Every structure is written in structure tokens, then in C-alpha cells.
Amino acid sequence: MQGIDAPERTQPFSKESAEFLSKYLNKDAITRVKGTDRYGRRLGTLFIGDQDINLLSIRGGYSWHYKQYLKDQEYAKAEEYARENKLGLWNSGNPVPPWKWR
Q1: Residues 75, 23, 41, CA angle at the centre, nearest 5°?
Q2: Is 98 a domain residue?
Q3: Domain with 82 in it: what CATH number?
Q4: Residue 60 has pLDDT above 90, yes or no
Q5: Is the pTM of this model over 0.85?
Q6: Most buried by CB count within 10 Å: which residue of 4, 38, 40, 64?
Q7: Within a domain: 102
Q8: Is the pLDDT of residue 78 over 90?
Q9: In the chain, at which residue ranges do the beta strands (DSSP E only) sit?
């Protein structure tokens, strides 16, 4: 999922993040592929109807906006909203992003 980075399995809040994303399994979804990463994995945005699930994940505090790879103002605002409202992983104070955890 392009533009987001969810907690690693060994990180706090990883279970909640996975549960959020699992709600969208087996739904009619469209992935708008925008390229591949350095490992050859396809990158894109998951849509169910007109809902950007990547954006919902950030806005709900289930993932970080991965600014290093996608500089999207809407995603940045969604993360700011989640931080300010202490939603999801932001409820625990100052969580460590996955790219630093790894």
C-alpha cells in the first residue's frame, strides 16, 4: 500500500492495525498501481468504492504516512489529524515508526 507504513508485528499497535485492514478483505476492491518498489513489489492505493483505504488507515491512526516515498498533502493532513486527536497508535504518546523500528 503506497504512502503508508503500518506497525511491524513486534511493535505496539500492530494487532489493531492488522484488524483494521482485515475489515477490507474479501471486499470488491480496486488497487490503482503506481509502480514498484526496490524489491519488485507493486505499489498502489487500495480503493473500495470511492474510499481510499490507505488514507483511512492513516487518518484512523492505524499507520504512518510514509513521507519518504509519497509526499501527498492529503495523507500528511490525515496523519496530523490522527496525531492531534490521539487516534490509534498516536494514543500512546510518541510511537516509533516502523522504518526506525526495523
Answers
A1: 60
A2: no
A3: 2.40.50.90
A4: yes
A5: yes
A6: 4
A7: no
A8: yes
A9: 4-5, 30-36, 42-48, 51-52, 64-65
- For residue 25, give Cα distances in angstroms to 28, 29, 30: 9, 9, 12
In angstroms, the CA 63 to CA 30 distance is: 20
Q: What residue numbers bound the domain in which 76 lies?
A: 4-91
Mean pLDDT of the chain: 93
3-state secondary structure 26-49: CCCCEEEEEEECCCCCEEEEEEEC
- Binned at pLDDT 50, 70 and 90, residue 79 comes out as very high
Helix (H, G, I), strand (E, B) or coil at 92: helix
Q: How far apart are CA 75 and CA 65, in angstroms?
A: 6
**Which cell numbers hold the place of 92?**
500512546
CA-based R_g, the chain, Å = 13
Looking up cell 516515498, which residue turns up? 69
